[in-house]
Design goal:
Elements lengths: L3 H13 L20 H10 L3 E6 L3 H9 L3 E4 L13 E4 L6 H6 L2 E4 L3 E3 L4 E4 L16 E7 L3 E2 L2 H7 L7 E3 L4 E3 L5 E3 L6 E8 L1
Parallel strand pairs: 1-12, 2-3, 2-4, 4-7, 5-8, 7-12
Antiparallel strand pairs: 5-6, 6-9, 10-11
């Protein structure tokens, strides 16, 4: 005696039995392109993020000037040289509580990939990125994107990512619109996104 699930699926198969097999979906869209750091910076800024471009040797001094004396969350594996002394660091080891994250002034992370075409930053909980919650609760997110991490297109970026990792796509600071289309920022993520693009 078949169970209900088997019976329902059998009925669906029977009802669709005379339908033609769907044709293959064409995949002729462009997968790579002439994306550049300038295009990436322009598109990130279009989303109301603050963008800085800097040469690699000048990155740490820039981080120090941007962070000042705030209380900043640090993923457990953030590079030691990024931990500038003026900041009160809140390392996520052991994992910080929701209250600690909510009370912090911001978070500093790296990223997995940047996408020039869309101005999107992708985090995958990899090196110097930490848990997803680290970038969702603090009101300020400072993200470092290296030149080698910028892909021209979405398909090119997806090819670099591991689809089984927890992917977070960031296109500007958190924002939503109410029924009257009034933009409200910071409802479900950081109100301020600042991006440091490091030229190799």
């Amino acid at each position: 005696m078949p169970d209900a699930r088997t019976e329902v699926l059998a009925r669906i198969r029977a009802a669709l039995g005379d339908r033609p097999t769907p044709a293959a979906v064409p995949r002729a869209y462009h997968r790579t392109g002439p994306g550049s750091l300038d295009l990436f910076a322009e598109r990130v800024a279009d989303y109301r993020a603050v963008v800085h471009q800097v040469a690699s040797p000048d990155m740490v001094p820039l981080l120090a000037s941007l962070l000042g004396t705030r209380r900043i969350v640090a993923p457990a594996d953030l590079p030691a040289e990024w931990l500038v002394p003026s900041v009160t660091w809140l390392p996520d080891s052991p994992p910080l509580s929701i209250e600690d994250l909510d009370g912090a002034d911001g978070v500093l992370t790296a990223c997995a990939v940047g996408i020039a075409d869309t101005g999107t930053i992708v985090l995958d909980a990899g090196v110097a990125q930490g848990r997803r919650v680290l970038t969702l609760l603090p009101d300020y997110h400072l993200c470092v994107v290296r030149e080698s991490q910028v892909a021209a297109t979405v398909p090119e970026a997806l090819a670099r990512l591991d689809s089984v990792r927890p992917l977070t796509f960031i296109s500007g600071p958190s924002a939503t619109s109410d029924i009257e289309l009034n933009r409200v920022e910071g409802v479900h993520g950081p109100r301020t996104l600042e991006v440091v693009i490091v030229r190799d």
